[in-house]
Amino acid sequence: MILVTGGAGFIGSNFILDWFSQSDEPVINFDKLTYAGNLNNLSALGQDLRHVFVQGDICDTAHVASLLATHAPRAIVHFAAESHVDRSIHGPADFIATNVNGTFSLLEAARAYWSGLRDADRAAFRFLHVSTDEVYGSLGPDDAPFRETTPYAPNSPYSASKAASDHLVRAYHHTYGLPVLTTNCSNNYGPYHFPEKLIPLIIANALDGKPLPIYGDGQNMRDWLYVSDHCAAIRRVLVDGRPGETYNIGGWNEKTNLDVVQTLCDILNALAPRADAANYRNQITFVQDRPGHDRRYAIDARKIEQELGWRPAETFESGIRKTVRWYLDNQDWVRDVQSGAYLKWVEKNYGNRQHNERKA
Ligand code: NAD
Ligand code: DAU
């Protein structure tokens, strides 16, 4: 089996759902269930025995160590993080705690476990660290896209904390030989994306008749990747990635934020026209910029394409239409998130389970 951290979040839950569509290998899903963790994302699994959920904090080395000893996974896929740049600006402490100290604790537990494995299992073990393109900093309009060799230059507390975690992961390979893999991916979008991030926020606000806030002049650029393409890339790296290597993952889909928001408005105009027939674009509002806002990210994904044969299956046009369709079809999910109902449900249903797992 494999251990996934942060499997109740946006990408982690998509990864687990994708995993079971391809494989029967069980997954232990270890997640603290912060505001961003939502077990409703995995409700399609029902009581599927391949999925073992354990609530816990990656900072708790002893808890992770007992899980590793009990379940003996062949790999750890590490998604758990504080992930929202705006939150890191308002309150960086949680980002240092989870992204830096938490990754350190996890590495320590993984190293102890891996050191005690038999030779063949030690050789086969993998620690896959899921990271971001934001560690490379901000590009100018004519700069070449980020390569794996681009020097780190993080600009927000979030990206600095992820950069620190990447360095720790690298050091555990260099110093102890832990078989690590690091992936640095661009902006994901798709189902179960928490509506504090640009794309789901714009869809939700548009349908609620609220303003569509665009930071600054709307000309900041991001490279967008449909989440299932990211999941497929992680699976490829897990199988054939070379320990100690990093792999950039991106969709070759650079868009300005204004383009993205206008595209969303146009799709909504077609699929869910307003009752008054007004154009959703009329709701666009330019607001004060994010402090330190990185201007442009772009990923050169040739290494993973050439070495591992991965390529995105979705274009931005196909992925964004699927995404809007998903949000239109799953407005209950959005309402539960907005009302906080999913948090109460978790408390009610998983309080005992947490206690039992802890004793095991
Ligand atoms: P998310 O915020 O949606 O989910 C994070 C998950 O981690 C949540 O389920 C949360 O409960 C859990 N978590 C947080 N702190 C924890 C802790 N201390 N112990 C255990 N679990 C904890 O994040 P996401 O967007 O799914 O991102 C997942 C990973 O991918 C992150 O490492 C992020 O840096 C990276 N990443 C995200 C994107 C993106 O566009 N969202 C792009 C590239 C890389
Ligand atoms: O690049 C990968 C990163 O992408 C991940 O590492 C992060 O975890 C993920 O959150 C995402 O970071 P961004 O800051 O790029 O995503 P966000 O959706 O917050 O913002 C996307 C762009 O849209 C960014 O330029 C800021 C802008 N924006 C965002 C919000 C929430 C707005 O203009 N208005 C908004 O209301």
Characterization of this structure:
- The protein is of the alpha/beta class and 360 residues long.
- The protein has a domain at 2-192 and 224-252 and 293-314: Rossmann fold.
- It contains 13 helices and twelve strands.
- The protein has helices at 10-22, 61-71, 85-90, 93-115, 119-124, 157-176, 198-207, 227-240, 257-271, 302-308, 316-329, 331-339, 341-359; strands at residues 2-5, 27-31, 51-55, 75-78, 126-132, 180-185, 187-189, 212-215, 221-226, 246-249, 254-256, 284-287.
- Helix 1 links the parallel strand 1 (2-5) and strand 2 (27-31).
- Helix 4 (93-115) runs parallel beside helix 6.
- It is globular and about 65 Å long.
- The chain starts with a strand and ends with a helix.
- Bound molecules: nicotinamide-adenine-dinucleotide and 2'deoxy-thymidine-5'-diphospho-alpha-D-glucose.
- Residues 83-85, 132-134, 186-187, 197-198, 201, 213-215, 220, 222, 257, 290, 297 line the site of 2'deoxy-thymidine-5'-diphospho-alpha-D-glucose (DAU).
- The site of 2'deoxy-thymidine-5'-diphospho-alpha-D-glucose has 19 residues, from helix 7 and strand 8.
- Belongs to the NAD(P)-dependent epimerase/dehydratase family. dTDP-glucose dehydratase subfamily.
- It comes from Noviherbaspirillum cavernae.
- This is dTDP-glucose 4,6-dehydratase.
- InterPro entries: dTDP_Gluc_deHydtase, NAD(P)-bd_dom, NAD(P)-bd_dom_sf, Sc_DH/Rdtase_CS.
- Keywords: Lyase, NAD.
